[in-house]
Design a protein that fits this description.
Elements lengths: L7 H6 L13 E2 L10 H13 L9 H21 L6 E4 L2 H15 L5 E5 L8 H4 L7 E5 L14 H4 L4 E7 L11 H10 L3 E5 L11 H4 L3 E5 L9 E5 L1 H6 L23 H6 L1 H14 L7 H28 L4 E3 L11 E6 L3 H9 L3 E2 L1 E3 L4 H6 L8 E5 L6 H14 L1
Helix pairs in contact: 2-11, 3-11, 3-12, 11-12, 12-15
InterPro entries: Aminotrans_V_dom (IPR000192), PyrdxlP-dep_Trfase (IPR015424), PyrdxlP-dep_Trfase_major (IPR015421), PyrdxlP-dep_Trfase_small (IPR015422)
Keywords: Aminotransferase, Pyridoxal phosphate, Transferase
Organism: Albidovulum sediminis
């Protein structure tokens, strides 16, 4: 029996951007910076602003419907992720969510206790934790291999040996290295040493919503706007940890887990529109699988696997092409099975003019450090030159990858 194939025609029909004349001849390879929004998200956001832009949960029809739609978003996304409804919080961004969490840990950690951070992270899951060092918390760094960017789990255990570490913060995958870290294995190591875990999933979640319950992590963060949704940060936090951490919201909301880490008023419309993400993934499932699946967690995992298989096959030709060149350095694994389809390369020149030259060939991408200053520095990349980043997702086609390779041949 042949493997189920992702229907790219159907997928792209769900994204209004592909019907826009101004974008029709452009191949979009800056998805790691933010993906196109899917139709259901746009439709829900538009409807909320037209019909329900009032106080949600109010005792009249528009308020009731607005509140119900916000609750629907939390319920459906939590069910896909294998967590309880109240274990999912929304915030203005992943960076803001992490900052609020760090303030809670600042008050929670005791003198003499420590945290572990990595030099593989985007700064959002590094800087707020490192600043706790100014408050007397010991900050230990789990370092990558400077040649490959690999984050070796064997290097974590010595950092935990004295039993003082209370938190390990690390990425599911880096936004420049892109190697997929073995989250469940790392979580088990940390838990065995008495430490909680905070996983930055921003660069992984666009490639299939993860089963956070199965991963076992205490905290998992990602950005909805990179998963075809609105500009919101989504945070899963295990109830027992969340209720132990000091409340960061209004004091009278302190008994409600998903309000404890939302110090500002939430964006009602964008939370409601996030239900469109679940609409989209469910539509993918209904289109591709003959048998209806009642369990949203199983549906989510099946769509995750479908997307991953498509992206692995899609990006391998690009990795092979780049690995064969001797005028650039491919960051991260050469095997698409081991990485997300976010491909960064260090060139023998400044990378930004190259991205501009690619735009003239209809290839939309970008260059720079992408707030990944620590991993790039650790790997010896010249930050003045930066890296060229070519990031695909499941709506990218094989034809677009072929166009990208042809354009690189001309530009490089």
């Amino acid at each position: 029996m042949s493997q189920l194939q992702l229907d790219s025609v159907y997928v792209r029909s769900q994204f209004p951007a592909f019907s826009e004349p101004a974008l029709a001849d452009k191949a979009f390879f800056e998805n790691a910076g933010g993906s196109y929004a899917c139709g259901p998200v746009i439709d829900r956001l538009t409807r909320f602003y037209r019909e329900r832009k009032v106080q949600p949960y109010a005792p009249y029809e528009a308020g009731r419907l607005g509140g119900e739609e916000m609750d629907e978003a939390r319920q459906r996304l939590a069910a896909m992720m294998g967590i309880a409804k109240d274990e999912l919080s929304f915030g203005p961004s992943t960076t803001a969510n992490t900052y609020v969490l760090a303030q809670a840990f600042r008050r929670y950690l005791k003198p003499g206790e420590a945290i572990v951070v990595t030099d593989q992270d985007h700064e959002a899951n590094s800087g707020p934790w490192r600043r706790l060092g100014e408050e007397g918390v010991e900050v230990r760094e789990w370092k990558i291999d400077p040649a490959t960017g690999h984050l070796d789990p064997a290097r974590l255990a010595p950092l935990l040996a004295d039993g003082k570490v209370r938190l390990v913060a690390f990425p599911h995958c880096s936004n420049v290295v892109a190697e997929i870290n073995p989250v469940a294995e790392i979580v088990a190591i940390a838990h065995a040493a008495g430490a909680a875990t905070c996983v930055d999933g921003v660069s992984y979640a666009p490639h299939g919503i993860p089963d956070v319950g199965a991963l076992g992590t205490d905290i998992y963060l990602f950005s909805a706007y990179k998963v075809y949704g609105p500009h919101q940060g989504i945070m899963a936090i295990r109830r027992d940890l969340g209720m132990r951490l000091p409340n960061q919201g209004h004091w009278f909301n302190g008994e409600v887990l998903y309000k404890r880490f939302t110090p500002a008023g939430p964006d009602h419309a964008q939370i409601a529109a996030s239900a469109g993400m679940a609409d989209y993934f469910d539509a993918l499932h209904a289109h591709h699988f003959l048998r209806a699946e009642p369990d949203p967690r199983v549906r989510g995992q099946q769509v995750h696997d479908l997307i991953r298989a498509h992206e692995v096959a899609l990006i391998q030709p690009l990795l092979d092409y780049l690995a064969a060149r001797n005028d650039l350095r491919l960051i991260g694994p050469r095997d698409a099975d081991r990485r997300a389809p976010t491909v960064a390369v260090a060139l023998d020149r400044r990378a930004e003019p190259v991205s501009a030259a690619l735009a003239a060939h209809g290839i939309n991408c970008w260059a720079g450090d992408f707030y990944a200053v620590r991993p790039l520095t650790a790997m010896g990349v010249d930050l003045d030159k930066g890296v060229l980043r070519l990031s695909a997702t499941h709506y990218t086609t094989a034809d677009e990858v072929a166009r990208l390779i042809a354009a690189l041949d001309k530009v490089l």
